[in-house]
Amino acid sequence: MVHQQLPPMDTHLSGTHSVLCQHVIRPHSHHHIKSRLSASDDLVQEIESIYTGLSSLPSLEPGMTTNKLFSKLVSLCIQQYDKETITNVLEDPRIARLIKYLRDMCSVGEYLLEYQWSEKIVSDCKLLDISRDDPLRSFVYYENYIELTKLEIHTMLGCGVVPRTVVFIGSGPLPLSSILLTEMCSDVAKVHNLDIDVSAISVASELVSAIGKNNVIEHHQCDGLDYKGFTQADVIFLAALVGCNHEQKLLFLQRIHDQCEPGTAVIVRSAHSLRALLYPVVEPHDLVQCGFDVEVVLHPHNQVVNSVILARRR
C-alpha cells in the first residue's frame, strides 16, 4: 500500500459580517462559530497526527504502537458530535484527501489483528477444554461483536426475518459474527461464509473446526460477485469492509439483487458520523436504487462502530 505525502494546508479562515449582525448578534455568534471551528480543527489535526503515525510504521501488524494508534482513532470516531462539527471535519480538504487511506489502513489493520487472534484461538483450543472454556472470549473486541450481533438479531426479529440459511460476504480470518449468530439465534441452520482471501478462509475454517462448528458453518473461498448460492439464502450479510468504495458497494448490492429471491433480507453494515473515517458509508437510497426496500436503519451511539441497515429484495 502506498500512502502519499500530503502538502500542508492553509487553515486561515476569514469572513464578513453586516453592520446589523455586528451590532445585534456578532458577540455571541462569533464566539459560537469560532468555538465550533476550533473544535473541528482540533479533530482534523488529531486525525492527521494518527494517520502520520500509522503511515510511518513498517507494518500494521498488531503491536503496542499500532494498537494504541488504532484504538485512539476508533475512540475519536465513536464519540458524539454535533452535525456541524461532523460536516466540518469530513468536508475539510485535509481529511477528504485522507479518508481513502485511513479506510485502507483500517482494513489491513483489522485483517492482521483478526488473523493473529484466529491463529491464537486455534492454538488455545488444543490446550483448553472448549466444553468448559470459551476461547473466543479472549478476543479483545469480543463484547463489541456480541453487541453488534444482538442489534442484528433483534432487527431481524422486529422485521419478521427468519435466518435459517445465511450467507455472509466478507467473513474474514476470524468469523466471529457467523459464530455468534449460530450461538445466539436458534433459527440458524446453516451459514455460508465467503471471502476472496485464501489465507483468511484457511485459518477461519481451521478455527470453526476447532470449536466444533463446522457442521453449521461452511467456508467458500471466492469473490462474492461470483457466488452462485444466493438463491438459497434467507438473509445475506454484507460486511463493512466488502467494497472499498461506494461504486464497489453498489456493484455488490446489484449482484445480490440479481441473484437472490424476492423477499430475501439483506443486512448491510455501514457507518455514520465520524465512523465514516473507518468504513465506507452505504445510504438507504443506495439499496433502493439497487432494487431493495429498506425497512430499518440503526445508527449505534455506543461502542458498536457499524450501523445496521436491513432491506428486502423487491
| CATH topology description of the largest domain | Rossmann fold
CATH class of the largest domain: Alpha Beta
Unreliable segments of 5+ consecutive residues: 1-29
How far from one another are the termini?
Answer: 39 Å
Family: Belongs to the nicotianamine synthase (NAS)-like family.
Protein name: Nicotianamine synthase
Keywords: S-adenosyl-L-methionine, Transferase
GO molecular function: nicotianamine synthase activity
List keywords for this structure.
nicotianamine synthase activity, Rossmann fold, single chain, 10 helices, SAM-dependent_MTases_sf, 314 residues, transferase, Nicotian_synth, alpha/beta, disordered N terminus, 7 strands, globular
What does this structure look like?
This protein is of the alpha/beta class. It has 2 domains: 19-114; 139-313, Vaccinia Virus protein VP39 (Rossmann fold, 3-Layer(aba) Sandwich), CATH 3.40.50.150. 48% of the residues lie in helices and 13% in strands. It is built from 10 helices and 7 strands. It has helices spanning 19-24, 26-55, 64-77, 83-90, 93-125, 142-158, 176-184, 198-210, 246-259, 284-289, and strands at 165-169, 190-195, 217-221, 235-238, 265-270, 292-298, 307-313. It has a 7-stranded mixed sheet with strand order 3-2-1-4-5-7-6, sandwiched between helices. Helix 8 (198-210) links the parallel strand 2 and strand 3 (217-221). It starts with 18 loop residues before the first helix and ends with a strand. Mean pLDDT is 90; it is low at 1-29. It comes from Mortierella isabellina. This is Nicotianamine synthase.
